[in-house]
């Protein structure tokens, strides 16, 4: 299709700002990106869609347009109602057609229109087997088919199992079940591989291949990926995988378009709460619009994802960490921060915190030098306490950031406990305190294959009860007494002293 064909689509209502004499350019694909430098992620002849979130001034416009190369045209979306003048000038100077899209037309609608037109063009070509399969895949999605149907169709064409996964190892769709160990191994490979596609060898010797979904994501921890049984396919079958990846990326863009609407409502709610004039009916109304119920409990979760200059990933990362246990409404609260309101229907706050922490620790493999920190509020059952709930989550996030761990979570309960004090102590000082109290025990255990550190922790957690501790450790009381004496000898401290017990407990909490 040509650009002028696209302009004739009344439902898109595209307008031309530059390149009126270049409308015979052919459109060979479509890509969505908001990276400041998308050069590696766009192809010649593509229609590039952007919301302009990368725009910071004239220099950013010149750099962005220069990095696009020989794309067919640039479509400016809804982040700014009118494209900045410096972007219009940069496109005019580069001979790049610049189109604008109305606020009420989502990118997914443009993508679908282009895809339909390309399918029609493909239909004029004599079909080869793989060529015809690609047409069937595209038609499946455009005609309302689900991701499951797409993945099942590709699995049938390749005659191998196939899956779409998130970077936490969550199976989004798949042609058959996939074990937890395999999922986590695939996620680790996707996050850490220097180059993709990649491959994982399972314990039974069979291979699984890993393929990225959409190259426009700013960081792998915010992307999805494909996995399929066997080594990397070649030739025409590789085209099927590439086509599936593009169609999965399209479906994800549809989901993100719907989530942006929710984000706007949550942004309005946060603005209302921060104004200090939030009347309860207004808060309740917006919660109902978001389908957020408070009667079974509601928590706020704040996240910071600082990855050394990469694009904004906080919103997709927090949304992923909450799924599928307790999907919440997520919005950005800063360049690297996000906030979610999470109804606790059927779950506890502790279960939610553990679920989020497990996912974040899976993502840790892909953080590089970056960090993910989270703050989880306590639970409320009424909208009146929403403002304090959000503040508690943000305060917990601040405390989590004080620690030195690459992944850390602080909860509302922690805010009112000794963990608050520990989080505020510099990492080097915490490690030094722990080494002074527990260093000799750790060295002794390592040299003699003993469990004195575990014994100490159990003894303290059982409040010094000989019977309860012995039962917990599955040892005789006399054995426990011997271990405690050995702990006291190595540390030079008495476990009969309450002050000494407190010191030991704090040391065990420090990392």
Chart the SSEs and their pairings.
Layout lengths: L2 H5 L7 E4 L10 E4 L13 E5 L7 H11 L4 E4 L8 H10 L3 E3 L6 H16 L6 H14 L4 H12 L3 E4 L5 E4 L5 H13 L5 E4 L5 E7 L10 E6 L6 H39 L5 H10 L8 E9 L7 H9 L6 E6 L2 E7 L5 H15 L7 E6 L9 H17 L4 E5 H4 L2 H7 L2 H22 L3 H10 L4 H8 L3 H15 L6 H12 L2
Parallel strand pairs: 2-3, 3-4, 4-5, 14-15
Antiparallel strand pairs: 1-5, 6-7, 6-10, 8-9, 9-10, 11-13, 11-14, 12-13
Helix pairs in contact: 2-3, 4-5, 4-8, 5-6, 5-8, 6-8, 8-9, 15-19, 16-17, 16-18, 16-19, 17-18
Protein model, in words:
It is a single chain. The protein is an alpha/beta fold. It has 19 helices and 15 strands. It has helices at 3-7, 58-68, 85-94, 107-122, 129-142, 147-158, 180-192, 236-274, 280-289, 314-322, 349-363, 386-402, 412-415, 418-424, 427-448, 452-461, 466-473, 477-491, 498-509; strands at residues 15-18, 29-32, 46-50, 73-76, 98-100, 162-165, 171-174, 198-201, 207-213, 224-229, 298-306, 329-334, 337-343, 371-376, 407-411. It has a five-stranded mixed sheet. Strands 7-6-10-9-8 form a five-stranded antiparallel sheet. Strand 8 (198-201) and strand 9 (207-213) form a beta hairpin. The longest helix has 39 residues, at 236-274.
């Amino acid at each position: 299709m040509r650009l002028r064909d696209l302009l004739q689509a009344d439902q898109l209502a595209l307008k031309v700002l530059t390149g009126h004499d270049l409308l015979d350019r052919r459109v060979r694909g479509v890509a969505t990106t908001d990276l400041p430098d998308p050069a590696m992620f766009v192809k010649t002849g593509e229609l590039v869609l952007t919301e302009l979130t990368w725009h910071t001034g004239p220099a950013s416009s010149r750099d962005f347009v220069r990095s696009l190369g020989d794309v067919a045209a640039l479509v400016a979306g809804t982040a700014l109602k009118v494209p900045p003048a410096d972007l219009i000038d940069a496109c005019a100077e580069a001979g790049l057609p610049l189109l604008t899209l109305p606020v009420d037309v989502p990118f997914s609608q443009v993508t679908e229109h282009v895809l339909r037109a390309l399918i029609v063009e493909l239909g004029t070509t004599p079909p080869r087997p793989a060529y015809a399969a690609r047409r069937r895949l595209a038609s499946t999605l455009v005609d309302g088919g689900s991701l499951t149907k797409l993945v099942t169709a590709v699995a049938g064409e390749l005659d191998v199992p196939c899956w779409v996964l998130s970077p936490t190892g969550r199976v989004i769709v798949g042609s058959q079940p996939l074990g937890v160990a395999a999922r986590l191994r695939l996620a680790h490979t996707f996050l850490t591989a220097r180059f993709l596609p990649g491959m994982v060898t399972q314990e039974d010797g069979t291979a699984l291949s890993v393929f990225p979904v959409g190259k426009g994501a700013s960081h792998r921890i915010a992307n999805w990926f494909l996995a399929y049984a066997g080594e990397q396919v070649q030739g025409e079958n590789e085209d099927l995988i590439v086509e599936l990846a593009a169609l999965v990326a399209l479906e994800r863009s549809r989901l993100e378009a719907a989530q942006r609407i929710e984000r706007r409502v949550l942004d309005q709610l946060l603005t209302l709460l921060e104004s200090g004039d939030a009347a309860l009916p207004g808060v309740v109304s917006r919660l109902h619009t978001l389908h957020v119920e408070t009667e079974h409990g509601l928590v706020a979760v704040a996240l910071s994802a600082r990855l050394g200059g990469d694009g904004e990933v906080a919103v997709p990362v927090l949304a992923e960490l909450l799924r599928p246990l307790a999907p919440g409404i997520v919005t950005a609260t800063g360049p690297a921060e996000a906030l979610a309101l999470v109804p606790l229907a059927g779950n506890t706050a502790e279960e939610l915190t553990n679920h989020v922490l497990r996912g974040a620790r899976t993502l840790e493999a892909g953080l590089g030098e970056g960090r993910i920190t989270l703050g989880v509020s306590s639970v409320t059952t009424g909208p009146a306490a929403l403002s304090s709930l959000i503040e508690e989550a943000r305060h917990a996030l601040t405390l989590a950031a004080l620690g030195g761990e690459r992944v850390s979570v602080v909860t509302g309960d922690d805010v009112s406990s000794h963990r608050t004090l520990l989080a505020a102590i510099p990492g080097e000082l915490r490690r030094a305190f722990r080494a002074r109290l527990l260093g000799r025990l750790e060295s002794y255990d390592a040299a003699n294959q003993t469990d004195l550190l575990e014994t100490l922790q159990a003894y303290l957690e059982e409040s010094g009860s000989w019977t309860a501790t012995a039962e917990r450790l599955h040892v005789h009381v006399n054995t426990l007494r011997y271990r405690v004496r050995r702990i006291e000898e190595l540390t030079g401290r008495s476990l009969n002293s309450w002050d000494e017990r407190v010191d030991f407990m704090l040391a065990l909490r420090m990392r």
